[in-house]
Each structure stands twice: as structure tokens, then as C-alpha cells.
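Example S7 (C-alpha cells).
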């Protein structure tokens, strides 16, 4: 059967829809088979052959050569078979060319539906194949419509969705707006590929910097870590493979040209670029800059650090609502507890006094305990007997007594703290009743999260490292609220 311009149609559809020619030809053959079975029944054995050069589709019905025909659709007599092929024998299978003109309108309609269905399936698979390799990359599109806050984006051959949760807080889109977003997921579903976009994912910022900073895309500068709170602030740690290239300066660009392009795309989101350091203590100091750090106490076992900062830098290190220290913790992978020097000094003095309250502990022994990492009665109460017997004049029996006495002292101090806390709470409640609606006074300071950052539970001190914000060469350029270089 010759279908008019079938070759041209196949080539045009393949080119326009991006569908492989073999897929289209297979769809045509399946459609013809469906039409034949619609006309002659589902039991017939048929095959189709498409000639790409001529555009001819031939249909053959195969029948078995038998002596006595019982089923004309599946069998042919030896006499009729030898008219087609003089050399045929009983049991052979002969292909008889079918007259496609007798298929009828219903069969033709069935063929058309099969072709349409196969083309849609092939088109969906092609779209999925084209976009599955783009996961994690930036893509441009135009807003098609907005449905319940979800933005439907036209990205050329398909539509993608930008869910509400993946949008930057405060963003507003209208039909026809241009959108840049990250492809975070491509799912193959029965209704077609589901392409999910994101502008809130940290990788979106990474890809924006790859676009703006050639050194990153070339591999000279590496983004070691990123922490982001979309719409608020992002911290990026960068390192350079070339000693002559400043990673922070390269990301900022001349007069901030590069970083400003990224900030503009993110609707004014603040970006802190800090130098990465292999030393965890120095890296944490860089992440908290421009706040100065007096001391870093590391607990490697629990991946935690206690950060001591001058009183004047306490609120700066914590940031508004604890954002600065929270992002620094995500960036470095360490639990950070920020304290002011005055609070830390008082805590150390109180812990030392608690050591002296343990019966049998004098100044010399207390100093020895501090050198061993036991800074308070609570620390001694949780100590091992094997550790305490290392002290001069302390055997196993004495060590057990010291631990038991330390527990009593720690319990007494806990009860005192609880009583003082209740008294302070009662005083605050009384003050609220008398001064409801009072304006903040000059002594009131907004620090974000009280005296501590996103404070972690108390931890055993294993190592103390003095640090002053890392090497001066790695400090970068900082503004009043940023870390490293801020835009």
C-alpha cells in the first residue's frame, strides 16, 4: 500500500518533534496491523514491511500449508499454495499479500488512533530523554500561568512547574515573565514527563556563580560548601587551585560586578563569600567574620565547637535571629555555640569554684583537673575512675569518693541554679505587669537568640584552640554584617 507523501511526513515529524524515524515507522506498522485485525479478526498472523525509499507499506498474511483447510484465515491448501510458490510443501508458512483497500473506514480510524498514540508516547519519551540529563542545571523559560501559587513555565519542548516551596519568599510572577531556575527533578509519568524547577535550592546559587565567574566553570576556583536560607542570606566557602588567584576577589569581580549580577537575580538576597580553610577552627572563624573570635574550644567527638567572642562582637557573631551562626554551622558542618567572653569567664570561674567545693580538692589538685579537661564538679562527676587515679596521691578508692562528692556538689549547684531561675522568672513576670507596653530602653540590646546562638547541649571539652578569625591573608573583605565579602 502506498501512502501519499509518507516518506516526507515521517521525515518532517521526526525533525519537528525530535522523534527517531524508526519509532515513527514502527508506529505506522503497528497501526496497519491494528487496522488489519480490526477488519479480519484478531487471530490472523500478519507482518508489515515499510520501504523507506518508496514509501510503500506491504502487508502479508501468513498461512500454513495443509491438505484440508479448516480455518481459512490461518490455513491454505497445498494446491493454492503451489499456485503462489511451486516449491512449497505441507507444513510450510506462506505469506499472502493483503488487499488494504478492503480495510474499511473503521479500520482506518483505528490505525489513525494508534499512530497518534504512538507518536505521543514517543514524544513524551523524547522530552524525558532530553531533560533527564539537565538535572542540576539552570534553565530559562517563560511563565505560562500560575495555579494556586505554583508557576507553570514554558521551557520550549515541554512545560515545567516551579512549586511554591521552591520559590524565593516574596517573589511574584505574572504571565509572560522570564524565569531562570534550576532543574531539580525530572520524573517520567504516564501523563508525560514532570519537570520540577527550583529557585530556592542552594545549587541555583552555585550555578549562577558558575555562569558569572569563569574561574569556577574552568575548575580554578572550587565552591567547597554552601549554606542558604532563600530570600535572606547565603554563605559560600571558596578555595583556589592557583596561589596567584584570590578566590574571594574573583567571585566578587571588579567593583563587585560579578556578585551584584547574582544578587540581582536573587532579588537582593545577601551573599557572604568566605575563604575555605582545611583547619576546622580557622574555617569556623572565617565563616563567622567579621566578628572577632577570641577562642575556639573543640569537641571533635561530637563535632561541636564553643566559640568565645568579645562582648562587643557577640550580637554580630550571632546575627539577626541567630541567622549568622546558624548558616556558619551549616556551612562548616560543626555545631556552634557562641558565648561572650564575660559569660564564658564567669562560667569558668564558677566551674573552678565548684572544683574547690569538692572535699579533699585543693588549688593544686583543681589546677591538675583543669589540665586534664575537668573544669567543673559536673565534669568530675562524669569522670572515669581510671582517669582520676592518674592524679598524685589518688588511688581507686579515693577516686570513687571524689566522684561521689563531685556528684553531690553538682546536684547542689543545679538546685541553686533552679531556685535562682524561678526567682528571676517571677521578677520578670512582675515587671511585665507593671511596665506593659514599655518602649525598649537604651540598655536593651537585640542579639537575636539571647546569650547564645543556636546553642547545643553542654559538651565535654576535648581540645582548646586559640584563634583570631583565621589568617589575615584569608580574611577577605567584610562589611558590618557580612562574612568575608558580602553583597
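Recovered sequence:
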Amino acid at each position: 500500500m502506498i501512502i501519499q507523501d509518507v516518506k516526507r511526513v515521517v521525515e518532517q515529524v521526526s525533525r519537528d518533534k525530535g522523534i527517531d524515524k524508526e519509532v515513527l515507522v514502527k508506529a505506522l506498522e503497528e497501526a496497519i496491523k491494528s487496522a488489519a485485525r480490526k477488519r479480519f479478526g484478531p487471530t490472523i498472523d500478519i507482518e508489515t514491511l515499510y520501504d523507506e525509499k518508496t514509501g510503500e507499506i506491504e502487508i502479508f498474511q501468513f498461512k500454513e500449508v495443509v491438505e484440508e483447510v479448516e480455518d481459512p484465515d490461518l490455513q491454505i491448501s497445498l494446491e493454492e499454495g503451489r499456485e503462489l510458490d511451486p516449491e512449497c510443501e505441507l507444513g510450510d508458512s506462506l505469506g499472502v499479500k493483503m488487499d488494504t483497500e478492503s480495510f474499511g473506514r473503521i479500520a482506518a480510524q483505528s490505525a489513525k488512533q494508534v499512530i497518534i498514540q504512538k507518536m505521543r508516547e514517543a514524544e513524551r519519551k523524547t522530552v524525558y530523554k532530553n531533560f533527564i540529563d539537565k538535572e542540576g542545571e539552570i534553565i530559562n523559560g517563560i511563565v505560562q500561568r500560575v495555579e494556586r501559587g505554583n508557576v507553570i513555565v514554558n521551557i520550549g519542548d515541554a512545560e515545567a512547574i516551579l512549586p511554591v516551596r521552591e520559590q524565593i519568599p516574596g517573589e511574584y510572577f505574572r504571565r509572560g515573565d522570564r524565569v531562570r531556575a534550576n532543574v531539580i527533578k525530572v520524573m517520567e509519568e504516564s501523563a508525560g514527563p514532570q519537570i520540577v524547577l527550583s529557585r530556592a535550592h542552594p545549587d541555583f546559587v552555585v550555578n549562577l556563580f558558575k555562569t558569572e565567574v569563569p574561574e569556577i566553570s574552568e575548575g580554578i576556583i572550587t565552591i567547597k560548601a554552601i549554606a542558604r536560607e532563600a530570600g535572606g542570606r547565603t554563605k559560600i566557602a571558596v578555595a583556589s587551585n592557583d596561589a596567584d588567584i584570590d578566590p574571594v576577589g574573583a567571585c566578587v569581580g571588579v567593583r563587585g560586578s560579578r556578585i551584584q549580577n547574582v544578587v540581582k537575580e536573587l532579588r537582593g538576597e545577601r551573599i557572604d563569600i568566605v575563604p575555605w580553610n582545611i583547619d576546622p577552627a580557622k574555617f569556623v572563624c572565617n565563616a563567622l567574620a567579621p566578628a572577632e573570635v577570641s577562642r575556639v574550644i573543640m569537641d571533635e567527638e561530637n563535632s561541636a565547637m564553643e566559640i568565645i567572642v568579645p562582648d562587643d562582637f557577640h550580637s554580630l557573631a550571632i546575627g539577626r535571629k541567630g541567622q549568622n551562626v546558624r548558616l556558619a554551622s551549616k556551612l562548616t558542618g560543626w555545631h556552634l555555640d557562641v558565648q561572650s567572653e564575660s559569660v564564658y569567664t564567669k562560667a569558668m570561674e564558677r566551674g573552678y569554684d565548684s572544683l574547690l567545693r569538692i572535699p579533699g580538692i585543693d588549688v593544686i589538685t583543681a589546677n591538675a583537673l583543669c589540665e586534664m579537661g575537668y573544669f567543673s564538679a559536673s565534669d568530675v562527676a562524669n569522670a572515669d575512675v581510671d582517669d582520676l587515679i592518674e592524679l598524685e596521691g589518688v588511688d581507686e578508692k579515693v577516686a570513687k569518693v571524689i566522684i561521689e562528692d563531685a556528684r553531690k556538689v553538682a546536684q547542689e549547684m543545679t538546685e541553686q541554679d533552679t531556685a535562682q531561675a524561678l526567682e528571676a522568672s517571677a521578677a520578670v513576670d512582675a515587671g511585665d505587669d507593671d511596665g506593659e507596653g514599655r518602649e525598649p530602653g537604651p540598655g536593651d540590646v537585640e542579639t537575636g537568640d539571647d546569650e547564645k546562638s543556636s546553642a547545643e547541649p553542654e559538651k565535654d571539652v576535648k581540645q582548646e584552640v586559640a584563634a583570631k578569625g583565621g589568617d589575615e591573608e584569608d580574611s577577605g573583605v567584610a562589611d558590618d554584617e557580612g562574612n568575608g565579602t558580602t553583597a
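Notes on this example. The longest helix spans residues 396-434.
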